[in-house]
């Protein structure tokens, strides 16, 4: 999803322009949360990022569209999109005045089981039209967009999930590992995880790939970058070295390499890019 929405989620700062709706008890093991965000029309392009929680992002109308730009391709998506995995240097542009977007954020692992997808489905194409998988799993997009309110959309999504639910099977130790990495904000190593959680490296790597679609190191890097990004945009890049080191990077070059990989730009270049729309 657009990284500015993820920033709000990570900081827990919600208002009328962005808020969370807690899932019911029946689906809380599958859905982390439902979110409504007012799209920022001052920015022409929005950086897309994923912190390991797969999402579905719905535009206001079924005929509304966005343009996705990747390093090698540009394409349009109508109605809604799904994204997961490690997203690098991908931007989205709204083609209409999208006053609100509706987001369903899934727990890692649950998303793939719910929609019957291989966890490597998004490995080389981290953003796809939701229509590609909606039809095969019986999610009626037309009926969803006929819902007249946000609460109706939440109810529609929960009803579909409950009707499709056959039990999510994810090892408890894997949940502990995921929570450990998130709680340390990515300032950990795979060795730290295996030692403190009490699992061996091969088990951890195999179960991450099987259930999450990412390797443990990839998941760590996503958490580290996101928290570094949040501090960077809030500090306006006054001390890049401090931002990098305080978030677990060994040196500035390490941070620069990651930042360019995820955004396609150097840190100061990206900040100027964002400010140009303000």
How would you sum up this structure in a few lines?
The protein has helices at residues 3-11, 110-115, 131-134, 141-145, 150-164, 172-183, 190-197, 201-211, 216-235, 240-246, 252-263, 267-275, and strands at 18-21, 31-37, 46-47, 55-58, 65-69, 74-78, 80-83, 91-94, 101-106, 127-129.
**Oligomerization:** single chain
- SS class: alpha+beta
Low-confidence stretches: none
Shape: globular
- Biggest sheet character: 6 strands, antiparallel
Domains, number: 2
End-to-end Cα distance, whole Å, is: 20 Å
The number of distinct β-strands equals 10
> How big a fraction of the residues is strand?
15-25%
Organism: Pedobacter nyackensis
Domain HTH araC/xylS-type: 175-273
Pfam families: DUF6597 (PF20240), HTH_18 (PF12833)
Keywords: DNA-binding, Transcription, Transcription regulation
Outline the structure in words.
The chain is an alpha+beta fold. The chain is built from 12 helices and 10 strands. The chain folds into 2 domains: 3-164; 172-275, Orthogonal Bundle (Arc Repressor Mutant, subunit A). A hairpin with a 4-residue loop joins β5 and β6 (74-78).
List the helices and strands and how they pair.
Blueprint: H1 3-11, E1 18-21, E2 31-37, E3 46-47, E4 55-58, E5 65-69, E6 74-78, E7 80-83, E8 91-94, E9 101-106, H2 110-115, E10 127-129, H3 131-134, H4 141-145, H5 150-164, H6 172-183, H7 190-197, H8 201-211, H9 216-235, H10 240-246, H11 252-263, H12 267-275
Antiparallel strand pairs: 1-2, 2-9, 3-8, 4-7, 4-9, 5-6, 5-8, 7-10
